[in-house]
Request: fold
Amino acid sequence: MRVSHSRPPAIGDDKGEPSKGHASSDAPVIERDQQPATLDVCRRCALWHDATQGVPGAGPKHAPIMLVGEQPGDQEDREGKPFVGPAGRLLDDALQEAGVGRKDVYITNAVKHFKWTPRGKRRMHKTPAQREIEACEYWLAKELESVAPHVIVAMGVTALKAVLEEKSVRLGDALGKTLEHGGRVIVATYHPSFALRAPDAETRDSAYAAIVAALRQAGEIAARDRKRKPTRINRHA
Ligand code: URA
Reply:
């Protein structure tokens, strides 16, 4: 196929007033060691401050396959759901082409808040920093523990770093290989946005084909190993 394709109350705000969570300066409140119960109150990094809301993963509670992207985009930030914008539409096409049903996948992001920079009236995506990926591993670990997928598809290098808990990994070294981490199978592929936005059609088409192939492989591995017990691992134990 051709690809054409209430601000949370601040911690410590005892009046219950909406607050930007600013300390005495303009800097947003950050509590790196915080163990928040909900995304709404997460202050483990600064990204909460400029996002509309945290965007949790979505999908069946015990899906055999977890798809991990980078971070919510503009539309996801507004709607509070992952992959509902252009990259999500491409992902839907790829899932369909790979023969993987939505019921078999839980979709989430390595980083749960939209990181952006203004350009005119638009909010332009900014790649999350390593410290933000690490801060958000808290949430990914919770999702991994409760969904207990057998296969994880890491879409893009941010996802791969988060899933492998390895900051120096390169996507190019992992593409086309089946990795193992924490008792789970990891399949690495391009991020759907790359298949949308690469400058030339040939690159877009081959990235899309690679995403379809990775999803198909994940589906086959999940089907093959269906009888195996789900792996429940608490990465912070
Ligand atoms: N890109 C991502 O990585 N995640 C989304 O949810 C949307 C776009």
User: Anything to note?
Assistant: Residues 201-224 form the longest helix (24 residues). Residues 69-73, 76, 82-83, 85, 87-88, 109, 193 surround uracil (CB under 6 Å). Confidence is low (pLDDT under 50) at residues 1-24.
